[in-house]
Design brief:
The chain is of the alpha/beta class. The chain has 18 helices and 14 strands. It has a five-stranded parallel sheet, with helices on both faces.
Length: 501
């Protein structure tokens, strides 16, 4: 067992809670000891939702273990129904309560409740949060989806996947819904967020499903395709190119002409401009959930001209997909849920930009590297009050602003020589745009066959942090090509002149 300060995913019952909290008319009765009720804080303090999560805890204590905890659960379930009058109850156990094996599903069915009960068995010690949300959504749909009585019109769909605590889910749904309406596609149900158990009975009234977040909706969409013959989308509309591919995919499924759709993104214009050359070849390290990591790598490499120097995910269920994506960029995928391993990989890669989660934001800040958050787990600042999607054409604008501005806030490279004696470029100066606590980028060790003279090391430190890693790599590459074993100040300037041609 590994002790960690941070974790990318909580236990699976938190995933179930994300599904339940997003839905309407569903109440979650969670068998949990006192102390396992911390999840309330996630929704009320981080997402800043206007209501408490629809969750009732049994909150048994140590002294209750000598008594009848099963009866305590049935009492909590009855009281939850009497108080909230939900359309259905979701029941389960937290990771701690799982150890006493009280079987919440069986207990709830003997409690005489007048509403449907959906039991979710979530193995807390072998699975994690995203798996829990996927399994919960699947079990709820299994309980409520009904076969279609009449063929659904081809130009109707459901949007599947958004949950509470999802990264920009609220805004993504609004953006993609508007895009689908421009195409002439009617949205039948959005689920789980915003849907009730009654709404789920109508899922088969749509012809196909738009899957925005496979981590939550992939299993359910595959089941609907297999059992109810409902096609599903595979393309994640993140970035201009992927959004165009998504539109074509929807057109093929729905049998409609998609040529008339308006592409309202400014990113392609910037990519054609002279200023975009500043971005070309910038090294970016990407680590997130699988959906956002794969999509972000495509945008970074093909639409912004970055060089992907690292790609990884904590979503082990999608490891194969991430490995296939990483192979396209010539890097080895990093599949781990250990943030310390991620930190070591970032320090070794020496990127000029990190795209990741809230964890990578902290890592990048310690290393003095700009960072943009692209995926959960997130912080309160990643739930902006403004409309800020990351999908669709407007999402491409948001991605551009979010990713490019951290780079642009440093001085342009062609100004380095002019301002090299400025006090802000002294080695002791902290990068102002990363906050007062930021430190300088960790220097990579020199190759075994090369060494740096002391005066050359001092000269290198005069180069601003955001291009210092690139200057070191270029100099070492130049020295290796010239057969130079000891890098001097003259070598440093010869390399600068060589790569400036």
């Amino acid at each position: 067992m590994q002790l960690a300060f941070w974790t990318y995913e909580g236990p699976p019952h938190v995933g179930a809670m994300r599904v339940a909290t997003g839905m309407i008319g569903l109440h979650y009765v969670l068998h949990a000891p006192q102390g396992d009720t911390y999840a309330d804080l996630l929704f009320t303090m981080i997402e800043r939702d206007g209501k408490r999560p629809p969750v009732t805890y049994t909150t048994f204590q140590a002294r209750d273990l000598g008594g009848d905890t099963a009866e305590l659960f049935k009492t909590a379930a009855r009281e939850a129904y009497e108080r909230f009058k939900p359309q259905a109850l979701l029941v389960g156990a937290s990771c701690t309560a799982e150890l006493i094996q009280d079987d919440p599903g069986g207990l709830a069915k003997t409690a005489g409740l007048p509403v449907p009960v959906v039991a979710v068995e979530l193995p807390s010690y072998s699975k994690k949060e995203n798996w829990g949300s996927a399994e919960t959504f699947y079990q709820i749909c299994r309980a409520f989806v009904r076969p279609a009585t009449t063929p659904a019109p081809r130009a109707t769909c459901n949007i599947l996947g958004p949950t509470a605590l999802g990264f920009r889910h609220r805004d993504d749904v609004r953006e993609i819904r508007g895009l689908l309406e421009q195409l002439g596609v009617t949205v039948n149900v959005v689920a789980p967020t915003g849907a009730s158990p009654d709404d789920l009975t109508r899922l088969t009234e749509a012809h196909f499903n738009v899957v925005l977040y496979p981590e939550t909706a992939g299993v359910t969409a595959d089941w609907l395709a297999r059992v109810h013959k409902m096609p599903r989308t595979r393309m994640i509309p993140m970035g201009v190119g992927a959004t165009q591919d998504f539109i074509r995919e929807v057109g093929e499924i729905a049998g409609i002409d998609t040529a008339r759709i308006e592409q309202a993104s400014r990113l392609p214009w910037y990519s054609r401009s002279v200023d975009s050359t500043y971005l070309t070849g910038k090294r970016v390290f990407i680590f997130a959930d699988a959906t956002h990591a794969i999509a972000a790598a495509r945008v970074a490499a093909k639409e912004m001209g970055f060089s992907v120097c690292g790609l990884g995910t904590y979503s082990r269920e999608f490891a194969r997909d991430v490995r296939e994506a990483a192979a396209q960029y010539g890097v080895e995928a990093l599949i781990t849920d250990d943030y310390l391993e991620v930190e070591r990989a970032i320090a070794e890669a020496q990127p000029e930009l990190v795209l990741g989660t809230q964890m990578e934001r902290h890592i990048a800040k310690r290393l003095g590297v700009p960072c943009a958050v692209i995926s959960a787990p997130v912080h309160v600042q990643d739930f902006p009050a403004r409309f800020s999607p990351v999908m669709g054409f407007e999402g491409a604008n948001v991605l551009f602003d979010t990713w490019v501005h951290p780079l642009m806030m440093g001085l342009e490279e062609h100004l380095l020589t002019m301002f090299r004696d400025d006090h802000e470029f002294k080695d002791s100066a902290k990068p102002s745009h990363l906050g007062a606590g930021a430190i300088q980028v960790a220097e990579a060790p020199a190759a075994i066959t090369q060494s740096w003279a002391a005066d050359a090391e001092q000269e290198l430190k005069k180069i601003p942090f955001f291009v210092r890693g690139k200057a070191r790599r270029n100099t070492e590459k130049f020295a290796a090509e010239q057969g130079i074993a000891t890098i001097t100040v003259e070598t440093l300037y010869d390399a600068k002149a060589h790569f400036a041609r």
